């Protein structure tokens, strides 16, 4: 039976708000089983997540082809809900791929899946790395309304992502409520400049400067710190041992650190010893480079 595999993502990388994200090796897996009279979704989540045609995976599949036959599907997930690791994006992409797989008349390319995913999700910073893998910058195509441009960036061989995942959810809608409706012009200009510098550093493989620029956001972190105090704790700890490269993953609550491989074990030990991070899951991850795929 075919199985759809979609990686977790970490978006809002530094000043790349709603535009820059990366994929990591935590996965949502959807195994397609037999046809059924109605949609049946077996999943590991609580009762808030529907088990029928109202499930986000099924809803997304039906946007591809409303005529596809209902199936029984089995969902496994290593991606925690509402923690800033792209759980909703992975479900949307899995659904679009499910619809693409089951449809007898439609065969979407990855680019078409991206365009559809962004229409559902609202912006490309989570869905694009989940589809393509690695680090991806994306935004609307100025020449083609409804389409999006993406560019993949090489991941560094000598760095790894470390996720600090608090034991509480934070809905994106709640996290967005604390953001201002307008931004001081000087802050916007600074964020624009530092976002451009971050992209230049990433494309030039200048990870020493990229790590510092990851901490230069002006758009959302300062406003969300009260919702995710772990960000300040993690950043202060990292700075105390000479490590840069922390940022709030997505809307939170996860804090991501891009650390050198030879510093990873030491940093993990320090994070695990920090009293203010007690109860957090601290995971040493890897970059996912392949993006979403289907295995037979």
E-strand count: 11
Helix content, binned percent:
25-40%
Write the CATH architecture name of the largest domain. Answer: 2-Layer Sandwich
The CATH topology name of the largest domain reads Ribosomal Protein S5, domain 2
The overall number of domains is: 2
Helical stretch count?
10
CATH class of the largest domain: Alpha Beta
| Structural class by sheet pairing and helices | alpha+beta
What letter string, H or E per element, gives the SSE order?
A: EEEHEHHHEEEHHHHHEEHEE
Query: N- to C-terminal separation?
Result: 6 Å
Structural Rg = 19 Å
Give a verbal description of the structure.
- With 296 residues, the protein is α+β, with helices and mostly antiparallel strands.
- It has 2 domains: 3-153 and 288-295, Ribosomal Protein S5, domain 2, CATH 3.30.230; 159-284, Alpha-Beta Plaits (2-Layer Sandwich), CATH 3.30.70.
- Helix content is 36%, strand content 24%.
- It has 10 helices and 11 strands.
- The protein has helices spanning 56-64, 87-102, 110-121, 124-132, 172-177, 185-203, 207-213, 221-224, 230-240, 261-273, and strands spanning 3-11, 20-35, 40-42, 71-77, 135-140, 148-153, 159-165, 246-248, 255-260, 281-284, 293-295.
- The strands form 2 sheets. Strands 1, 2, 3, 4, 5, 6 and 11 form a 7-stranded mixed beta sheet that branches. A 4-stranded antiparallel beta sheet has the order 8-9-7-10, with helices on one face.
- A hairpin with a 7-residue loop joins β5 (135-140) and β6 (148-153).
- The mean pLDDT is 94.
